[in-house]
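Let's practice the habit of predicting before peeking. Look at the sequence and jot down your guess about where helices and strands might fall. Then scroll down.
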Amino acid sequence: MDELNVITDAVRDEGGKWLELSDRVAAVKTAAEQLHLDVSAFFIGDANALIHSMAYRDFHSFLVDILGGAVTEFEQIGGALRRIADEYDRADKIISLDLNKIYSA
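Done guessing? Here is the structure:
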């Protein structure tokens, strides 16, 4: 069986990228939350201003929810990658210690 080598620093770096992405999306979410338009913004001479306003409000709410979900998910991915790297390192230390006991006897 081929030996498996995991470069845990690279896994941690990837986790950091996801955490940074989470922070960047959080800033976009915060900005998007501030975007509000009154019904009058949709008045273009017809009676559909209320309908357009409701569609905007529904889409705005949907978009803010999606961005909030991305912040959470990206943070979880980043944390999971760092924990994976930690577990690989921990397992490697255990295996290394066991082999040293065997070969030193």
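How did you do? Residues 1-37+65-104 form one domain.
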